[in-house]
């Protein structure tokens, strides 16, 4: 059975879904469903961490002024009815802002839960002094339009210092649901129960640090009200059809030749890492085209063929894929070398110095635009490289990673892999996938070169460009995750260690 897609919905899309659903439902029913789902999730967490008499479980519920606060109040009433000790901290201006929230507030007041106004002098002291078993964050949801401030900011900082699970409702307060950006302070949750549909901001930028484990509560919304998502969460199901056992009657030519173009003086390690990865990921033959005099061979991987770039024909007759940029440098002759790769009709991946040269030399971008009718092109920038290409600051790119990746893909007519926490893969038509593997173990020199070599290898083996980009990013992160799980990270993991781990993973998945 083919796995289903894991859609990610924007705030605008979720608002439209919610409004359409509420037209056919009794007033307040969606909020009641959210509160019940939140209470069930909370009880599950309490039972998982229970270390004493169930009657002494203490839960702190943070209720904000909007519908997210209403969800939290409904959850508080349900938890109090279960025998849980509940304290509700009512944020400033937490008066009822809708009939639904007014009903939720009334139910919480009529339950066994204790309600405490944030403005009271003893509120923060009471929260900080108690030994909590769980905190439920219902301060601000997807409708928040300003950073946490005042008492809410102080409470978020207090909660972030507590030693107990934190369950965020819909999104952690202070985290932007579309982008994963934060402005100042945000709740750092261990778990997020997100409503109706998943959100991209939970999986990229600060999202992975603040959302914790994410679970979707669909709230029994009619599936016909859910539009086709423009973004989705990555997964093996997006490229699994390419992972097939190899046939017996094949040879090295069956799996393509890759050329890695790079390795200026003092930077030979970058293309060597990429080339070794391409070989271990299954390419039939791998060449390294050096802009300067090449070494006679790679003593650590003598199967690689080292050539002088000026002597290499980059046409599709010779190479099934090209990877340009690792350690390429920025000499004047390098621009001409890069233009030669653009003239090839082979699939082309551009990384590192190739991207910096493109940002500095507008004619290269024009040449790339002409190439769109030829072989596929994939760009793999980190945020600084993307910022240079978009004439933005890094902060602007990171403030909206999906938007930046989409803009760059449309601007250059390419597939963009915007690296970082929750790597974003964007196609020219605006389709986006947010990758869900990898982590801080990859925050070390050379891992980007490994990724470029892996993607080039998959392209050479005939993977379609979109699936090659998705597969390379997912496999790269999953290999790092496997090493971390085995105790080889995240601190101190090196790029070279990824290479055999990637080979092992590909073989396991292709068996």
UniProtKB/TrEMBL annotation:
Q: What is the lineage of its organism?
A: Bacteria, Pseudomonadati, Pseudomonadota, Betaproteobacteria, Burkholderiales
UniProt KW keywords: ATP-binding, Isomerase, Lyase, Metal-binding, Multifunctional enzyme, NAD, NADP, Nucleotide-binding, Potassium
CDD domains given in the database record: YXKO-related (cd01171)
Assembly and partners? Homotetramer.
* EC number(s) given by UniProt: 4.2.1.136, 5.1.99.6
Domain YjeF N-terminal stretches = 14-227
One Gene Ontology molecular-function label? ATP binding
Keyword flag Transferase = no
Catalysed conversion reaction: (6S)-NADPHX + ADP = AMP + phosphate + NADPH + H(+); (6R)-NADPHX = (6S)-NADPHX; (6S)-NADHX + ADP = AMP + phosphate + NADH + H(+); (6R)-NADHX = (6S)-NADHX
Q: What does this protein do?
A: Bifunctional enzyme that catalyzes the epimerization of the S- and R-forms of NAD(P)HX and the dehydration of the S-form of NAD(P)HX at the expense of ADP, which is converted to AMP. This allows the repair of both epimers of NAD(P)HX, a damaged form of NAD(P)H that is a result of enzymatic or heat-dependent hydration.
Pfam families, from UniProt?
Answer: Carb_kinase, YjeF_N
Q: How is the cofactor bound?
A: Binds 1 potassium ion per subunit.
User: Which residues of the sequence carry a binding annotation for AMP?
Assistant: 419-423, 448
InterPro entries named among the record's database cross-references? CARKD, Nnr, Ribokinase-like, YjeF_N_dom, YjeF_N_dom_sf
Keyword Transmembrane on entry:
no
Organism from which the protein derives: Janthinobacterium tructae
The domain of life is: Bacteria
The molecule here is called Bifunctional NAD(P)H-hydrate repair enzyme
- Cofactor field: Mg(2+); K(+)
The UniProt record lists the YjeF C-terminal domain at 235-509
The biological processes this protein is annotated with in GO are: metabolite repair; nicotinamide nucleotide metabolic process
């Amino acid at each position: 059975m083919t796995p289903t897609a894991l859609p990610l919905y924007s705030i605008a899309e979720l608002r439209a879904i919610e409004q359409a659903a509420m037209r056919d439902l009794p007033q307040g029913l969606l909020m009641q469903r959210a509160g019940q789902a939140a209470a069930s999730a909370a009880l599950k967490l309490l039972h998982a961490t229970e270390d004493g008499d169930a009657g002494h479980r203490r839960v702190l519920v943070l209720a904000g002024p909007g519908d997210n606060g209403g969800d939290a109040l409904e959850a508080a009433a349900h938890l109090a009815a279960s025998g849980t000790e509940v304290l509700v901290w009512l944020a400033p201006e937490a008066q009822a802002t809708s009939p639904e929230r007014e009903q939720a507030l009334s139910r919480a007041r009529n339950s066994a839960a204790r309600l405490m106004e944030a403005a009271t002098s003893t509120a923060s002291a009471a929260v900080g002094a108690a030994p909590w078993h769980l905190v439920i964050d219902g301060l601000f949801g997807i409708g928040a339009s300003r950073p946490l401030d005042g008492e809410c900011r102080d409470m978020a900082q207090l909660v972030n210092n507590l030693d107990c699970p934190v369950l965020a409702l819909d999104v952690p307060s202070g985290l932007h649901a579309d982008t994963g950006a934060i402005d100042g302070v945000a709740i750092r949750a261990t778990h997020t129960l997100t409503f109706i549909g998943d959100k991209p901001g939970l999986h990229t930028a600060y999202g992975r640090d603040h959302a914790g484990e994410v679970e979707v509560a669909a709230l029994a919304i009619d599936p016909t009200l859910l539009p086709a998502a423009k973004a989705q969460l990555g997964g093996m199901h997006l490229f699994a059809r390419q992972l097939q056992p190899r046939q017996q009657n094949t040879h090295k030519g069956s799996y393509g030749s890759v050329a890695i173009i790079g390795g200026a003086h003092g930077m030979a390690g970058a293309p060597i890492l990429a080339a070794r990865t391409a070989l271990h990921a299954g390419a039939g033959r791998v060449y390294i085209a050096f802009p300067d005099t090449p070494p006679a061979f790679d003593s650590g991987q003598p199967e690689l063929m080292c050539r002088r770039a000026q002597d290499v024909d980059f046409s599709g007759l010779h190479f099934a894929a090209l990877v340009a940029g690792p350690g390429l440098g920025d000499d004047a002759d390098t621009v001409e070398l890069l233009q030669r790769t653009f003239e090839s009709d082979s699939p082309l991946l551009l990384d590192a110095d190739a991207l910096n040269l493109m940002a500095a030399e507008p004619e290269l971008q024009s040449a790339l635009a002409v190439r769109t009718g030829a072989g596929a092109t994939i760009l793999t920038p980190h945020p600084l490289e993307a910022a240079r290409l978009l004439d933005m600051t890094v902060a602007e790119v990171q403030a909206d990673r999906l938007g930046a990746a989409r803009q760059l893909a449309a601007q250059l007519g390419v597939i963009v892999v915007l690296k970082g926490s929750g790597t974003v893969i964007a196609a020219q038509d605006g389709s986006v996938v947010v990758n869900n593997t990898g982590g801080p173990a990859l925050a070390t020199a050379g891992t980007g070169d490994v990724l470029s070599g892996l993607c080039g290898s998959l392209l050479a083996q005939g993977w379609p460009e979109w699936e090659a980009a998705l597969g390379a990013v997912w496999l790269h992160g999953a290999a790092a995750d496997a090493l971390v799980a085995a105790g080889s990270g995240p601190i101190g993991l090196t790029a070279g260690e990824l290479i055999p781990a990637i080979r092992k993973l590909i073989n396991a998945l292709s068996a």
